[in-house]
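Fold this: Two component transcriptional regulator, winged helix family
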Amino acid sequence: MTASMFRQPEGPRCIYLLDDDPDICRLVSSTLREFGFETFECHSAMELRRLLLARVPDLCIVDLGLPDADGMDVVRELQARYACGVMVLTGRGYLSDRVMGLELGADDYVVKPFEPRELVARVRSILRRRDKAPGASMQPEMRSQLAEFGGWRFRADCNLLSSPGGQEWTLSAGESRMLLQFLQRPNRILDREQLCGDRDLSALDRSVDVRVSRLRRKLESDPQHPTTIRTVYGAGYLLAAEVRWL
């Protein structure tokens, strides 16, 4: 894992805005700056990649309709390579797009038109969840713990999940944060707010359920009848396994 994958030293929270509409970028940027955020605007995926070479932000706000790339591919790339939050801000309001964005690891999905103050609240919610995530305050060299459970292994320093048979997956940042929550509190019921670290989670927010589903597709032999990550109806989810930290 390279140093560029970790967040930069503390200061004003840094946000990159990727949208091919300059008016939208200016509106979002000016609103966020009013609340003390540092913002940088870019209008293509190529511009964003140049910015990422110099600095990894706390959050990227990504439009899906880009001139030089599919926005979903950008979301996938951000989650796979960089330790930053991702918000999708788009005119695509279809449920299938929202589900796909969340499955790729986006922390939130906001449809245009939007209320600027609500956008600020959502940005703060994402940053708050990430700050509360297990290992968020640790230095990279302190996050090299290895967890073993039911024959599976998870390396928290590189988001690597290994099956008993040797198959490996590199989890998205969102999946890794959720799995760490389970591994740190096995055989205990965790509600949706605990799993995402946000007490302000909307009752209609399905991002937790989407990530549970993604983890089950990897961990369960039959995801429709899970035995490792169990649903406790009306309460939350439970990791039914003994966990050993190596």
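Residues 3-132 form a domain with the Rossmann fold fold (CATH 3.40.50.2300). Residues 1-10, 137-144 have pLDDT under 50 and may be disordered.
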